[in-house]
Design goal:
This protein is mainly beta and about 375 residues long. The chain has three helices and 25 strands. The strands form five sheets. Strands 2, 3, 4, 7, 9, 10, 11, 13 and 14 form a nine-stranded antiparallel β-sheet that branches. Strands 17, 19, 20, 23, 24 and 25 form a six-stranded mixed β-sheet that branches. It has a four-stranded antiparallel β-sheet with strand order 1-15-8-12, with helices on one face.
Length: about 375
């Protein structure tokens, strides 16, 4: 079993109310709708008079082509795989009890730019609501070079633009008042599209048409961007099944009086170490007293087949990789139980803790939350 994480290469927010503004270096990604009940109160002249009662904010995120090619190779190495997009909430305001977000693959490339929302005058060096690159204007009408004639890409409400995407390829995540507001959505259908030879232009994150079309909508979601310099950048996480459980002559653990350690934990790993095989030493905590010529404390046993690993940030206790009963199962060979860890998808200069969970033959579940800690260095 394996989980591989990559960080966003580009991300930004585009704004219908500020359709020429670039915010490529902002620390926050916005997915919000702040529409006015009376759009006549807000006018903007852009070569023609436009009513600007809407304030729709959508985010664009892209992962590098080389990383996409790399995970494409991993996805074909096992019997199945899933791809998840993850983004972490920074602030939320005026949320509905139930709402959904849309995720679609963009059909055009775009330039991130170097603008900030607070720049005055507006920075126009990269993608905006109107255009995929730096804003250009002619004397007749502003040039809007998203694919505006794709009917599925028309903006909602008043201001045309706002990105364009592949028709009929959509995934959603639904939220309620009790669910986490972090994004953790299965976009395997989108990665399949990329892996099939189509261009990776990234994804757009937006509210549904029903919300964006509502003249009185107000819902704000802010997520950490790649430029926030925290441990919460947008990530793509691919999980695939390469499990193998062949314990040979190893005795399998059948009680909770067991101690486990990482037999080959180096303590620190360079971020450029792509992957590492952690071997698990497991033995009885209170071995039976019998005559033997070797120490029972040196006898290694196999974890049960239903055993899984999870990865925790040791300082914040944030779950970096959660238990996944399909994709974080622990392997075993005649030497020991083991699992693979991909290091280059982890934040440098952080300590991480491995937590192991096993289900015994009688159904009892054991969790080993001991000091199985390592550090990632630059």
């Amino acid at each position: 079993m394996a989980v591989y994480k990559i960080f966003a290469e580009q991300d930004t927010t585009i704004y219908s109310r500020y359709p020429t503004k670039n915010t490529g270096l902002d620390e926050i990604l916005e997915v919000s709708v702040k529409n006015s009940d009376d759009p006549k109160n807000d006018r903007l002249y852009l070569g023609a008079t436009s009513l600007m009662g809407d304030d729709i904010r959508r985010s664009l995120v892209k992962f590098s082509n080389s990383d996409i090619e790399k995970i494409k190779g991993y996805s074909t190495s096992g019997s199945s795989y899933k791809t998840y997009f993850k983004a972490y909430i920074a602030r939320a305001e005026n949320l509905s009890q139930n709402y959904s977000l849309e995720f679609r693959p963009l059909d055009k490339g775009w330039q991130m730019g170097v603008g900030h929302f607070g720049d005055f005058p507006d920075n126009r060096t990269g993608v905006s609501w109107y255009q995929t690159g730096s804003y250009r204007y002619n004397s007749t009408f502003p040039i809007k070079n998203w694919n505006l004639f794709n009917s599925s890409s028309y903006s909602y409400y008043f201001v045309s633009g706002g990105g364009s995407w592949v028709p009929n390829l959509l995934t959603t995540q639904s939220f309620n008042n009790q669910s986490s507001k972090d994004i953790n959505v299965d976009i395997t259908n989108i990665s399949d599209y990329w892996f099939s030879g189509n261009t990776n232009n990234g994804i757009i994150i937006k509210h549904t048409q029903q919300v964006e079309n509502n003249s009185g909508s107000f819902m704000m979601l802010n997520y950490f961007s790649n430029d926030t310099h925290t441990i919460y950048p947008p990530t793509l996480e691919i999980r695939w099944d390469d499990s193998d459980y062949v314990p040979g002559d190893l005795e399998i653990i059948n009680n909770s009086n067991t101690v486990i350690t990482l037999g080959n934990n180096l303590g620190s790993f360079n971020r450029n170490t792509e992957k590492y095989k952690f071997r698990i030493n497991s033995r009885d905590k209170y071995p039976q007293r019998v005559f033997t010529t070797s120490s029972w404390y040196m006898t290694n046993k196999a974890l049960p087949q239903n055993s899984y690993w999870s990865l925790i940030d040791a300082k914040t206790n944030e779950v970096v990789v959660d238990y996944d009963y399909d994709y974080t199962r622990i392997n075993c060979d005649p030497t020991s139980s083991y699992f693979m860890m991909y290091m280059n998808g982890l934040e440098p200069e952080r300590y991480y803790k491995i937590v192991v969970q096993s289900e015994l033959e009688d159904g009892e579940v054991i969790v080993w939350d001991s000091e199985l800690i390592f550090k990632i260095t630059k």
